[in-house]
Amino acid sequence: MEPEQRCMALSTAILVGKALSWLPEVVERAKALRVNAGTSPLDVGPLISQAKQKVNSLIQSGVDEGAQLLLNGRKVKGYDNGNFLGPTIIGNVTPQMKCYTEEVPGPVLVVMEAESLDDAISLVNDNPYGNSTAIFTTNGATARKYTHEVDIGQIGINVPIPVPLPIGATNFYGKSLHTDQNCSSQWKAEDSTVQTLSVYMPSMGR
């Protein structure tokens, strides 16, 4: 895999209803991610030059098509001439935009909005790249509905995409080898007891 180009990265977030209020915090946390060449602790490293050109092009296409650039990582301080691209967040994205219909090989989060869970499920199922998905919720019924109705090979519940588990590709990559693997953890209020995930998940040291 090329640096910072992970095919199973969470590249699209669908915020349902009041979850849209989280977006400013997401932007602030993304700003705190460290970008460098690996000579000091980092969260985001360089891209290969060809990938950087493609990512920059997809970011610009989103802006040109009416999306909102909430965090622009196209220029990284201290690495103006390198193949570096910092965390980038694009909001107000619609299903027709190129930054959504094409895979973005870089640290870019595409943010979409849905009025209801049913609308969000429809967005997921209509996406041609149907390898994996994750849902974050405190509602068990919501989690069950999501896992039963999305047509995806691998599902995380209150965890990121469960990369260590087996996966069979779906949709764009073909319907064969569909394994329907789920990985879940409880997500409670801040004053509740923290639950330990029983399946090993890489956490980047955090």
Automatic annotation (TrEMBL):
The reaction(s) this protein catalyses: 3-oxopropanoate + NAD(+) + CoA + H2O = hydrogencarbonate + acetyl-CoA + NADH + H(+); 2-methyl-3-oxopropanoate + NAD(+) + CoA + H2O = propanoyl-CoA + hydrogencarbonate + NADH + H(+)
A Pfam family cross-referenced in the UniProt record is Aldedh
Any one GO CC term of the record: mitochondrion
GO function terms (MF aspect): methylmalonate-semialdehyde dehydrogenase (acylating, NAD) activity
Q: Which Gene3D superfamilies match?
A: Aldehyde Dehydrogenase, Chain A, domain 2
Q: Name one GO biological process term.
A: thymine catabolic process
Q: Specify the superkingdom.
A: Eukaryota
Q: Aldehyde dehydrogenase domain: which residues? A: 5-163
> Which PANTHER family does UniProt cross-reference here?
MALONATE-SEMIALDEHYDE DEHYDROGENASE, METHYLMALONATE-SEMIALDEHYDE DEHYDROGENASE [ACYLATING], MITOCHONDRIAL
The record's family statement is: Belongs to the aldehyde dehydrogenase family.
What is the official name of this protein in its record? Aldehyde dehydrogenase domain-containing protein
Q: Which organism is it from?
A: Oncorhynchus tshawytscha
